[in-house]
Amino acid sequence: MCNVMHVNASETSSQQVIPAAAQLCTSCHGAQGQGMGVVGPRLAGLSAEYINNQLTLFQTGKRQNPTMLAMAATVQGDNIALVSEYFSQQAVADIPLQFRGDKVAISDPFEALAFQGDWSRVIPACTSCHGPSGVGGGQFPRLAGQEVSYLKTQLLSWQNGTRKGDVDNMMGNIAVKLTAAEIDGLSEFFANIK
Predict the structure, then answer these.
(1) Could you tell me which of 121, 118, 138 has the C-alpha nearest to residue 130?
(2) pTM score, whole prediction
(3) What is the rounded CA–CA span in Å between residue 31 and residue 9?
(4) Per the count of CB atoms within 10 A, which of 38, 89, 146, 154 is most buried?
């Protein structure tokens, strides 16, 4: 039995070998994990560690999404690592990296939250964990270039307690302090980093 599928050159710029275990994922996340708008978020650019952990959270019910609950159940055993590695190795656009501290004065309130946080409300800079320009790494997902509606939905899920699974409910504790305008603004800000 063949364990790989070759994607037609017309579908991608080069031949890609998609592991059989990842084929179902491509229907919502795309063959190279670039995402498909509101249908499925971008997986390319996320670390294998993060993808692996999220699949496990869906499988155990600690992270809720009816579609992903069913889809994650199809990836078992060694295939979890295989799928995670495949999508983590897919290309994402290089972006100029902006580090915390590169700018002292930031006039845009959402950029300021992203790079400086708001210590009066005990909100750390997003880039403290999500890396320069929100490129992510390890257990922290890439925010840069992610679908705006997905980012907003996730922040709202953290805020209302329906998304769980991070250490010490870190994101839940941050999200409850954000206003609706900040959630909208941060989602737009990170989605537009491309």
Answers:
(1) 138
(2) 0.89
(3) 12
(4) 146
CB 87 within 8 A of CB 29: yes
pLDDT (tens place) for every residue of the chain, 194 residues total: 333 333 333 344 445 699 999 999 999 999 999 999 989 999 999 999 999 999 999 999 999 999 999 999 999 999 999 999 999 999 999 999 999 999 989 999 999 999 999 999 999 999 999 999 999 999 999 999 999 999 999 999 999 999 999 999 999 999 999 999 999 999 999 999 99
Count of residues making up the chain:
194
At 81, the amino acid letter reads A
Q: In the 3-class helix/strand/coil scheme, how is the chain assigned residue by residue?
A: CCCEEECCCCCCCCCCEEEHHHCCCHHHHCCCCCCCCCCCCCCCCCCHHHHHHHHHHHHHCCECCHHHHHHHCCCCCHHHHHHHHHHHCCCCCCCCCCCCCCCCCCCCHHHHHHHHCEHHHCECCHHHHHCHHHCCECCECCCCCCCHHHHHHHHHHHHHCCECCCHHHHHHHHHCCCCHHHHHHHHHHHHCCC
**Residues in CB range of 66: below 8 A, 6 or more apart:** none
